[in-house]
Amino acid sequence: MRRNKTPFNGKRYVGDKRQLVVHDLDHEDRDIRGCCIDSIAISEVVTFEPDILHEAYRQGYEFCRNCIGES
């Protein structure tokens, strides 16, 4: 589920700087063992410009296995 507040700003792809994992908020796994986007510290959230999966991959982020699948 996309979030419109900072630091997410309605973006689809959100990265966790600490773990170098990118999540797809349109396919977020909200199970307790799923993506846990809300537990990422605000200082560790990164978005991508352009907001495309390839940009996250280009910057070295691995795909979340829950919402994207294998990289």
Annotation field: number of helices: 1
> How helical, in percent, are the residues?
under 10%
The stretches of 5 or more residues where confidence is low (pLDDT under 50) are none
Q: What is the subunit arrangement here?
A: single chain
Q: What summary fits the major beta sheet? A: 4 strands, mixed
The radius of gyration computed from the alpha-carbon positions, rounded to a whole number of angstroms, is 11 Å
Supply the helix-strand structural class: mainly beta
Write down the domain tally. Answer: 1
Kindly report how far apart the N and C termini lie. Answer: 21 Å
What's the arrangement of strands in the largest beta sheet? 3-1-2-4
The rough form would be described as: globular
| SSE series | EEEHE
Briefly characterize the structure:
The protein is mainly beta and 71 residues long.
What do you see in this structure?
The protein has a 4-stranded mixed beta sheet. The protein has one domain (13-63). The relative contact order is 0.28. β1 (13-16) and β2 form a beta hairpin. Helix content is 8%, strand content 18%. The mean pLDDT is 95. The chain contains 1 helix and 4 strands. The two termini are 21 Å apart. By secondary structure, it is mainly beta. The chain has one helix at 53-58; strands at residues 13-16, 21-24, 45-47, 62-63.
